[in-house]
Amino acid sequence: MDNSWHPLHTSLWVYNKLALPNMILTCLGNRVETAHSVESRPPFLDQKLADAARQSLSEKWTLKEAGKPFITQELYERRKHPYTAPIKWPCGGPLNRLMERLITKENVENLGFIDWGNTRGWLQAAFGDDADSRSFRRLVIIGSWVVLSQSFGVKRASKQHWYNGLKTCKSS
C-alpha cells in the first residue's frame, strides 16, 4: 500500500481489512445469523476463489446437465437471464375485465380527485397489442384507490376539504 497503489485501491483495501470483517460481517453477517439460527449464503469473499468460480462453469450447470437429454442445444448453451413479467395484457382478458369492473365513471367520481376523462382514455390505451404500459400502471393505482375507498367507506374527496385542511396546517 505504498505510493504505487491507486487511491481507490487503497480505499478498498482499507475497507476490506477494517469495516468488512469488524462491522459488516459481524453485525450483518455470521453473528446475527447464528443468534437467530439462520444460515445464509454470503458472497464469495476470497477473490481468487470467486474468479475461479466465475470462469469455470456456466450458470446452473448441474441443472443443465440433468436436463440435457430433454432440452435443445440452444437452451443448453443459453446464458441465464431474468424472468420478466408481461407488460402488455390482452383486451377482454381477465385483468382487462377486472379493471373495467372496478374503474367505472361512478367509482372514479366517488374518489373526488381523479378525472374520469383521462381515466377512460387510459382504460382504452392500457390493453391490447399496442398497449401503453404507463396507462396500465395508472389504472392499477386508481383501481387500488377504488378498492380501498370502497372497503373502508372513505368519503368523496373535495377541494373544500383539502383547502380547509391546508389552512389548518398553515395556521398551526
UniProtKB/TrEMBL annotation:
Where does the Asparagine synthetase domain start and stop, copy by copy? 3-124
What Gene3D superfamilies does the record point to? HUPs
Which GO terms label this protein's molecular function in UniProt? asparagine synthase (glutamine-hydrolyzing) activity
State the superkingdom. Answer: Eukaryota
Q: What is this protein called?
A: Asparagine synthetase domain-containing protein
Pfam families named in the record: Asn_synthase
GO biological process, alphabetically ordered:
asparagine biosynthetic process
UniProt organism field:
Pyricularia grisea
Mind telling me which SUPFAM superfamilies this protein's record contains?
Answer: Adenine nucleotide alpha hydrolases-like
